[in-house]
Amino acid sequence: MTLYVNLAELLGTRIENGFYRPGDRLPSVRALSLEHGVSLSTVQQAYRLLEDNGLALPRPKSGYFVPADRKVPALPAIGRPAQRPVEISQWDQVLELARAAPSPDVVQLGRGMPDVTSPTLRPLTQALGRISRRSDMPGLYYDNIHGRRCLREQVARLLLDSGTNVDPDDLMITTGAQEALAISIRSVCEPGDIVAVDSPSFHGAMQALKGLGMKALEIPTDPLTGISLDALELALEQWPIKAIQLTPSCNNPLGYNMPEDRKRALLVLAQRFDVAVIEDDVYGDLAYSYPRPRTIKSYDEDGRVLLCSSFSKTLAPGLRVGWIAPGRYLDRALHMKYISTGSTATQPQLAISDFLRAGHYEPHMRRMRGQYQRSRDLMTGWVTRYFPEGTRVSRPQGGFMLWIELAEDFDSLRLNRALQGQGVQIAVGSIFSASGKYRNCLRMNFAAKPTTQIEEAVRKVGAAAARLMQRADLA
Description:
Blueprint: H1 3-16, H2 29-36, H3 40-52, E1 57-59, E2 63-65, E3 86-87, H4 91-99, E4 107-108, H5 122-133, H6 149-159, E5 172-174, H7 176-188, E6 194-199, H8 203-211, E7 215-222, E8 226-227, H9 229-238, E9 241-246, H10 260-273, E10 276-280, E11 305-310, E12 322-325, H11 330-340, H12 346-357, H13 361-386, E13 392-393, E14 401-405, H14 412-419, E15 424-425, E16 427-428, E17 441-445, H15 452-474
Parallel strand pairs: 4-15, 6-7, 6-9, 9-10, 10-11
Antiparallel strand pairs: 1-2, 3-7, 5-12, 7-8, 11-12, 13-14, 14-17, 16-17
Helix pairs in contact: 1-3, 2-3, 5-12, 6-12, 7-8, 7-11, 9-10, 13-15, 14-15
GO molecular function: transaminase activity
Pfam families: Aminotran_1_2 (PF00155), GntR (PF00392)
Domain HTH gntR-type: 1-69
């Protein structure tokens, strides 16, 4: 990534996080040149990029300013601390989302689906075709329980970008990140154990806890900095927590990148109380800034972090290829893998390995990160325009999910029902909570290339929300 793009992303992040407010004067070209050790032309290119994205406005002889009319919706509120661990509910709502089949008549704003239409994925589909035509038919045989070594070697190289140094022999290929999370949970916990989770939290991880008979303790989470370390420390002192499960980079659903010093501090807490950390990094490579955020695993020196990820969000979910770096729990994780799905399908492993080895992954990532960042800005603008006044919106630093918070007494379950028959589906906020909190919230996907159909879908959601709020006021 070029110097001016890096600088533009840094300034853009500061603007979006409120460091520079609407109407503020931005640093001069000369000041930025000295501060970052780059040329004046590099700074000018960065400002032109910010200007193109609507984040900076030049004024003759005065410099650059944040547009005064730029509407910045408030961030979602931080949830209240949980009183006690709870058994996970919300399966019916999760099942409703999971059952939704792709249809040209429905705009799927609720599913965690990346854009799979990019031409940069063509080498992957070509690799799948080549492997299927080989006379020795390698894709039709059982693989070993660890997964294909050629893919594990490529994943180990990929992890270096996140500061994570893992030997290929310490990696396991899984059937998606969902299996990686389930294996991790079963490797460190027993039925009845307590797991601390960020809140709101990925519904798939919580449903894995539910299915395995465990309880969740929801820890309040800041929409910019992540899980509250003070609340987590208090919970660790009060309850016999066996593991901490969280998504610290490009979080789903809030979109934040947990600062590096807070990741290190969380690991220190885990060491102090001798608990495992289950880190979901499935969106980490989709961070808009470069270099991408470090993993908690990258600071791990005693093997207590189980790092889970997959290619479902970066390439395509239908491949069902993920991985886990289980640290000290490798033997236990291998057994859990053996009794769940056994080996992972061979053909997609070989195709992804070819795709990575040929150097196609990073160009694809650059394209998707740029597309998703632009789509985020458009989607945020549409929500600001079409949703009721006072709506709070997350500011994702990566990935393709937007978390939206309406008035406290709003019910997104009623909103979802009201949208039935209008060709739109959302993800209701309550599925991101073990106890059914966040009923006044929803999550929307902005991965697809923006179209008038998607804008109309967002308008329908906002209009339906406004009607429900108006009815509640009249009642």
